[in-house]
Structures are given as C-alpha cells and as structure tokens.
Design brief:
Radius of gyration: 16 Å
Strand order of the largest sheet: 1-2-3-6-7
Shape: globular
Strand content: 25-35%
Oligomer: single chain
Helix content: 25-40%
Bound molecules: ligand K2U, zinc ion
Order of helices and strands: HEEEEEEEHH
C-alpha cells in the first residue's frame, strides 16, 4: 500500500542506508509498496529512505512513451560499477523536495549491478533518463539529494522554502 513520502529537511533523508543481506518476503512487499507510492506520486523513481526505511532498495520505471509497456524495476543493493566519460544535464526534481527543479549534470550512461527480487544478481547499462534516475536514486541511499549539487546559497533558499511548506502542510493537516 502507498506510504507517505518524507519531505526535506529530514534527518532520515541524510543517512546512509544499510545493505540488505537476504531478500525476505517483507522486503519484496516493501518494493511493491514503493512502486505503488511512486506511480501514485507520480514519479519515475523512489528510494526506501524517502519513505523512512533505511535500507538499500530503490524502484524505478522511466518508461515515458504513452501506451508503452511499463518496466518496473526493483533493485536491492544497487551499485554503479562504471560510468561514461560523457556527461548529460537534466532538470531534476525530487518527490522529497516538491516543486523544486534544477539542472544536474551526471554521467550520460552508467552500468549498474544489483540483486533483483528473485535474489538473482543483475547487471545492466542505462543511458538517458534511466541513467539520470538510477543515479538520483542511488544518491538517496547515500543520503545525497540533488540540491547537494547546487550552490550553498540556492540550497539554503530551497531548504527554507521546504521548512515553510512543511509548516503550512502541518497547519492544513495535510
Ligand atoms: O527520487 C525521487 O524523488 C524520484 C524522482 C526521480 C527523478 C528525479 C529527477 C530525474 C529523474 C528521476 C521523481 O521521479 S521526480 C518526478 C519526475 C518525473 C519525470 C521526470 C523527472 C522527474
Ligand atoms: Zn529524489
């Protein structure tokens, strides 16, 4: 079922998530809950720390073409094993930092190794939006937000806006 998404600033978003040593049914259920939460947001990626779970699990589905079959992926202990020299700049957002968008430059292609829900080790190279998204999600597992790539001043302004947004939401009881 859908879980509430933490909003920055929140110490749980800055912690390094713990590796998973065995894939249990509740972790598979967590991955399903994260996919439901992601699709509902809507988003194209979500990391476990964003719903307050400090474990190394991310989900993503960056299929954007209308009518194309969705490709939901759940990655346990994902790691980037190689990155392209070529870089790509994308205007990123984050479900934990609503309505804020900023350009972030990252390697255009990355090769990722992970364990899938069946416990099989997988390795795949992603490019384009999939590459941007998987790097954004793995950053979340290391307590890193896309605003950490911005100047200190911009980050402070954004953090102040989020503090106000959380205060207003608390008042409205959202
Ligand atoms: O981690 C998250 O907060 C989910 C992000 C992932 C993401 C951010 C930037 C670039 C690619 C992926 C959300 O999906 S933000 C919503 C979104 C939707 C489509 C394209 C970009 C961002
Ligand atoms: Zn994010």
């Amino acid at each position: 079922m859908k879980r509430p998404i933490l909003i920055h600033p929140d110490p749980r978003l800055k912690k390094v998530a713990a590796p998973i040593d065995d894939i249990s049914d509740e972790l598979r259920q967590l991955a399903d809950d994260m996919l439901a939460t992601m699709y509902d947001a809507p988003g194209i990626g979500l990391a476990a720390p964003q719903i307050g779970v400090g474990t190394r699990l991310i989900v993503l589905d960056c299929v954007k073409e209308e009518g194309a079959a969705p490709r939901p992926l759940a990655m346990f202990n994902p790691e980037i094993v190689s990155s392209s020299e070529e870089l790509n700049t994308y205007e990123e957002g984050c479900l934990s930092i609503p309505e804020i968008y900023a350009d972030v430059t990252r390697p255009e292609a990355v090769t990722v190794r992970w364990i899938d829900p069946d416990g099989a080790e997988r390795e795949e190279t992603f490019d384009g939006l999939w590459a941007t998204c998987v790097q954004h999600e793995i950053d979340h597992l290391n307590g890193k937000l896309f605003i950490d790539y911005l100047s200190g001043l911009k980050r402070q302004l954004i953090t102040r806006k989020m503090v106000k947004l959380k205060r207003d939401r608390a008042r409205e009881g959202v």
